[in-house]
Every structure is written in C-alpha cells, then in structure tokens.
Amino acid sequence: MRRNGEPGMERIVGAVCPLDCPDTCRMLVTVQDGLAVGLRGDPQHSFTRGFLCQKMARYLERVYSPDRLLHPMRRTGPKGSGSFERISWDEALDAIAGRFAAIVRSADGPQAILPYSYYGTMGKLQASSLDRRFFHRLGASRLDRTICASAGGVGYEYTVGRGRLGADPMGVPKCRFIVNWGSNTAHTNSHLWSLMIEARNRGATIVTVDPYRSPTAVRSDWHIQPRPGTDAALALGLMHVIWRDGLQDDDYLARSTVGAGLLRDRVLSEYAPGSVAAITGVDVETIERFAHRLANEQPSLIRLNYGMQRHRGGGMAVRTIACLPAIVGSWRHQGGGALLSTSGTYDFAMDRLTRPMLGPPARTVNMNQLAEALAGELPGPPVQALYVYNCNPAAVAPDQARVLAGLRRDDLFVVVHELFATDTVDHADIVLPATSQLEHVDLHGSYGHHDVMYNAPAIAPRGECRSNNEVFRALADRLGFEPELFPDDAALIREALDGGPSLAEITLERLESEGSIRLKIDTEYAPFADGVFPTPSGRCELYSERMKADGFDPLPTYTPPAEDPRTRPDLADRYSLQLLSPPRPQFLNSTFANSPRHRSAAGDPTVELSESDAASRGLSEGDWAEVFNDRGRFRARVALTGNVRQGVAVAAGLYWNKLVPGGSNANSTSSTVLADMGGGATFFDNLVEIRAIDPPHRNESPSSALHA
Ligand SMILES: Nc1nc2c(c(=O)[nH]1)N[C@H]1C(S)=C(S)[C@@H](COP(=O)(O)OP(=O)(O)OC[C@H]3O[C@@H](n4cnc5c(=O)[nH]c(N)nc54)[C@H](O)[C@@H]3O)O[C@H]1N2
Ligand SMILES: Nc1nc2c(c(=O)[nH]1)N[C@H]1C(S)=C(S)[C@@H](COP(=O)(O)OP(=O)(O)OC[C@H]3O[C@@H](n4cnc5c(=O)[nH]c(N)nc54)[C@H](O)[C@@H]3O)O[C@H]1N2
Ligand SMILES: [Mo]
Question: Atom 5 in ligand 1: which residue has the minimum CA distance?
Fold first, then answer.
C-alpha cells in the first residue's frame, strides 16, 4: 500500500512523545514508502529543543519491534500463563460486548465492570475521551486515577488554589537558587534540568532535597538528605528560621496571604531547628543555611515533584512546602515560586471530552486499591470484569501478590488492550492490540511546559492494531449506544479546544500546520506575581478554612510516615529498612522494561544499601538478596554505592515480573495504604528487611520462576 505519495519520496510528520513525563517532546518522523525510517526531536520546539531522551530516541525500535501484539487473542491456558490463540476483531468485540451486556443484566449490574487505565499515553484522545464516555454511559464503576500525583495535587491546591498552576519553566534560567525537592529532575524532567544548568551557568546554585543521593543529587551543588517522609518538618523548620531571622517578605505576606500570623506562631513555638533536626536527620546548620539562601537569593524556585508525595503525609508535605514561596516572596518573579505541574494552565474542555454526567451514578474505586477491589473487599458489587488499557497494573500497582491473585480469579473476565505482552496481558481473557503513537492521532498538553501539541499519524497501524478510541467506538456500536456520543477524532479535538481563554485562537487547523503552539499566556508568565490566588479567599492560604472543613489541620503540620521504624516499633523489630522504589532512567515506569536495549542498559534489579546495613546482614556488593516484608518479596543485587544513609534502601526501576529472577518486582512489598489527601499512593512508605540468597541459576527462565 503506497499511501504516502511517490515511491521513495520522503516526508516529515510532526509527532508528540506520548510518555507520562513532564517534558512532552515534539518529534519529527521521517516517512518513506509508508515506513517510519527516522525519528528525532524537533529543534524548533522551544522547551525540548530537539533533544530526545534515551528511551524515545529509540522509539522506532519499539514501533517496529517483533514483540508487538498485532492481532486480537483469546486465552487458551490458565490465567497468568500467557497462552493465547488468535481470533478476529469481530470475535473479540462480540465476546467483550456480550459479557458486558450479561453483567449489566445481572443482579450486580454495570458497576461490576471496572475500567483500569493510567497514562501509557498522555494524549487527550487516547487517554481520556471516548473511554470515559463509554464506561460512564455503560454505568460501570468509576476509577479514581490516584496512582501518581493526587496527594500532592490536593495539598498544593489547598495552598495556592489550583493544583496545577506554577512557575513558568521558561523563566528558570533567571533563577538564582533552585531546589529539586523530591525530584530526580536530571532524569525525570531532563529538559527542565537543561534550563537549571543554564541558570547555573549564570551563577545559580542547584540544591536537591532527597533521602537518596539520586543522579540529580549527584549533579547538584548541594545535597540535603532528610529521612524519608519528613519533608514537611524540614519545611516548617525553614519557616522557623525565616521568621526568627526576619527574612520573610512582609509586603507579599500582608497583601497576598491568609494566616501568616498563625503559621508564624506555630513554627516559632514548635519547629525550632533542633527539633526539626531530630525528626529529619538534617543538621541544624544545614537547616539555617538552607533557609537563609532560599529567602535571600531571589528569584528562588522550588521544583517539587513526587518523592515526598508517596508517603502517608504526602499531601500535607506538598501543602506545607507550597507555602514557602509566599513567605519568601519568590512568586514575584518569572521562573520563581514553586513548580509542581503546569497542567492547570490549560483550559481544555475536559468535562465535554469525558462527560462525567453521562450514565447512572456509580461507585468510585481508588486505583491504588486494585488488590482490595479484586478481592471483593470494597463496598458495592464484586468486580466481575476488568478492562485494562494504557496501564500495566501487574507491575505498577501496590501489593502485587494480591493484585496478581485477583487477576487470576477464574470468575473474573479480563480484557487488556496493549502494545506488548506485559505481565498484565498474561492475565487477560481477551487481548486487544494497540496502536503506537505513530499510528494514531492525538492532542497533547503538558505538565512541564505550556504548549498545546498535535500528533499526526505518521504510518498506518501495524498488523490489526487499533487505537483506544477506535475500540470504544466499536464497542459502543455493539452495545447500541448513541453514535453522536462517539464522533471521530477531529471532532473530539475541536471539542477539547473549545475550553477557555488560554486556548483562544488555537484551532485544529493551526495545530495541523504549526504542530505546537504556546498557550495564550504572557511571555513573562508569573502566575502569582500580582499576589492574587484562585483560592476562596483570593490569597495564598497559609491557613485554610477548606482544610478545616475537610477534617485536616488548617495550618501546615508534619505527619509521620505510616511505616517508620522510629514511630512503628511493632514493625521495626522485623523490618527496619525504609524502601524507596523510584523509576529507573532507562524505563518509563514499566514501559521499555521489555526492550532488550533498555534492559541491558538498566542491568539486573539492584538494592542500594549503606555499608553498615549491608555488613550487619552479611551482604556484599553484587550479592543476590531477597527484599521482603509481610506483603511479599523480590530479588535484587546488593549495590554499595554510598548513596543511601543507614536505615534506607533504594530499589530503582519498575521491572517486568516475568523478566526478572524470582518473578516479582518492588511492588510486591509496597502497600495499599492511602496518603492523607487525594487517595494518593504510598509506594515509598514501605518497611522491608533484606537477606542473602543463593544466586539464581544461570538457566533459570524468568517465566518459569513466575509460574513456579
Ligand atoms: N526516565 C524516566 N522519567 C520519568 C519517569 C520514568 O519512569 N523514567 N516517570 C515519569 C512519571 S510517571 C513521574 S510521576 C515522574 C516522577 O518524577 P520524580 O518525582 O522526579 O521521580 P521519582 O524518582 O519517583 O522521585 C524523585 C525522588 O524522590 C525521592 N524521594 C523518595 N522519598 C522521598 C521523601 O520522602 N522526600 C524527598 N524529598 N524525596 C524523596 C526519591 O529518592 C527520588 O530520587 O517522572 C516522569 N519521568
Ligand atoms: N514501586 C513503584 N510503583 C510505581 C511508581 C514508583 O515510582 N514506584 N510510579 C507510579 C507512577 S508515578 C505511575 S504514573 C504509575 C504508572 O503506571 P502505568 O500507567 O501502568 O505505566 P507504564 O508502566 O508505563 O505502563 C503503561 C502501559 O500502557 C501501554 N500503552 C501505551 N500507549 C498505549 C495506547 O495508546 N493504548 C493502550 N491500550 N496502551 C498503551 C504501554 O505499552 C504500557 O505497557 O506507576 C506507579 N507505580
Ligand atoms: Mo507518574
């Protein structure tokens, strides 16, 4: 099929990186005879400037991988075995529609169907449009998508009024003091990191606050290493020093905040550097110096990310840190203040796209509690059918052993729409093959810059792959839903763009020709320079009536972790190491963990320990060890990098279970305890123990390990 003009003719198609990452790079795909033969970053894109990360630079290998799923399949072996036979799309869609219709008619009703998705693609269309309409119209259970950013989103919103408004990354080169707080920026937001380096070249200092000497901490001028989950206490200690030493911005505080006096009284009486040092493990002198520099070296920026959110007190920690810019007056400057996410600047018409009011009211299931949902422990009817897309819960969800046990329930009907045979796919009754980003159309915002972007399809779908939206259209048709609710993708893009002032004059036609367009916001955008905040009071709420009404302390406070040996002696007897399991740079969550190139670059799973913790357990560099707690266990090689303090362990990377010895990853130990706000996940609030084991046999097949 020659769809692309003359044989041999090359054309360049503008695309967008679909990964769940703040950078949202613009890419240029070279297409020849219907094949994508080249892919590079777009040097014209203002934020990403032509540079792609080590994952997306090789995206064509993924698109054309021999491992792509290319046709629908039906399970033939036991659940989890990954044995399937090829079927036609008609057979697959009939099986799904038939089963869904039967569940809708059953005594349990449609709420026994649970959609399960996250951001395998960030595209507005393929991540949150017809899927939402379909499941709302069906009356299925609703999914609260809390696995990543919801605790901090809510905490930030209490303070500044809109969870996802923050400093303009394009202003970062002007900053003088830059803090990466719980953020591995050099790897997880690498284009922002380049702007930080630009600031450093102009004299700025880069600081990282992280219990782990992360790659970003290694490259920073100053690394502050608190105990996990103690960030709020550290921030309150900074406030103490700032007020005690008169470093606060009185004018900004008086004009633009609520509750400054109350907060000042609290921190002066309760958070003296000595007590904060005892909680955080950060010494008094560091706390004093950090406070002085943050206040004095303006513009200062706090890039706060996910590290501190994945603990029980994560919402309150973000809420507390988000007060600092108003106290030191850093919101006055472009690039200054705090940056959690930029996505709130976009006025996409999300409600029109997703239609939350469609269909009957239904229960909401928190996605972090998939284990409980599949075990029938949540209120409402038992889950009879699970439809997974854009997500790999068998590897990424907490309390993995219980998630897998749930997925293996014989009476559960599981549909998985995927590009690759993930651990989740192995548990499917019906597997549907998904298009890659080069094979479908999409519209993108970003959570790390301010551009609206258009992803044009570059090539025809491989094999029989279909996009998420195509599948929901076909299922809607089979279930007799109103066709006007399931229009084509161009119509959906127009609806999404018809949202509000920041999108004024941005049309599908312009996007098709320009590819990427900055939102209609100031060139020198500084959201709170005028001191007006989108809170109920119109000010930055250091004291929050809304929090009080919601049952929280209305003032910032410190909430200890759920699993901390110092506050949980009951657990500390058996499990004394706080395990952090952040992503590995070679993978994007569990995406790319099946790519031979990225797997070999990442190497075996590792667990980093302090010398003394290793020695007391008889462990040496390179030894295979088992990391375990009451929830489960996984294997990793001991790495003595000097990057963790005593009492902390780090197992980076979300490996695929079936591709590692032992057949499980770090989420076999993480818990489904929810964070204080937003129902957030607590992946890093996790006490474990570690013991030596024999090395895996050379010929031990990872998949036989899984099914042993
Ligand atoms: N290369 C790559 N980039 C990615 C991703 C990826 O998988 N790979 N994932 C993307 C996604 S979905 C997300 S959500 C973001 C995540 O982006 P980040 O938030 O930057 O990533 P993490 O590595 O999860 O967490 C950052 C750091 O927080 C630290 N940390 C853990 N506990 C605490 C704590 O209590 N306090 C403090 N201060 N720090 C703590 C960890 O040690 C880690 O170094 O990155 C996105 N970008
Ligand atoms: N222990 C621990 N656990 C974590 C984290 C951690 O740091 N530590 N991080 C958490 C975070 S921040 C996040 S965001 C989650 C991420 O968890 P997930 O959202 O599950 O992310 P991925 O592992 O990248 O899996 C996404 C899947 O979507 C598929 N996909 C991509 N595009 C499409 C498409 O167009 N259609 C369909 N149907 N499928 C597609 C990909 O092939 C991939 O398998 O994991 C969380 N889990
Ligand atoms: Mo995430």
Answer: 588
Decide: 586 in ligand 1 pocket, CB within 6 A. Answer: no
Which residues does 341 contact at the CB level (< 8 Å), separation at least 6? 22, 149, 153, 163, 164, 166, 447, 448
Verify that 427 and 353 share a domain, yes or no: yes
Domain of residue 86, residue span: 73-143+349-435+465-506
User: 549, 582, 612: which is the final residue of a domain?
Assistant: 549
Sequence-ordered list of residues with C-beta below 8 angstroms from that of 685, at least 6 positions apart, any chain: 228, 229, 310, 311, 312, 561, 562, 563, 578, 671, 673
Q: Is residue 696 pLDDT above 90, yes or no?
A: no
Q: What is the CATH number of the domain that holds 664?
A: 2.40.40.20
For residue 580, the surrounding DSSP H or E stretch is strand 577-580
Rounded to whole angstroms, how far apart are CA atoms 327 and 318? 15
Q: How far is the CA of 584 from the centre of ligand 1 (A)?
A: 9
Length of the chain: 708
Q: Is the pLDDT of residue 544 over 80?
A: yes
Q: How confident is the model at residue 703 (pLDDT cuts 50, 70, 90)?
A: very low
Nearest CA to ligand 1 atom 40: 307
**Ligand 2 centroid – CA 180 distance (Å):** 24
Q: Calculate ∠ Cα 335-341-344, nearest 5°.
A: 105
CATH code, domain carrying 242:
3.40.228.10
Tens digits of per-residue pLDDT, 590-605?
999 999 999 999 999 9
Ligand nearest to the CA of 234: 1
**pLDDT digit string, tens, across residues 157-190:** 999 997 689 999 999 999 999 999 999 999 999 9
Q: ∠341-588-211 over CA atoms, to 5°? A: 65
Is the minimum distance from the CB of 683 to ligand 2 under 6 angstroms? yes
Number of domains in the chain: 3
**Tens digit of each residue's pLDDT (9 = 90 or more) over 564-590:** 999 899 999 999 999 999 999 999 999
Whether the CB of 311 sits within 6 Å of ligand 1: yes
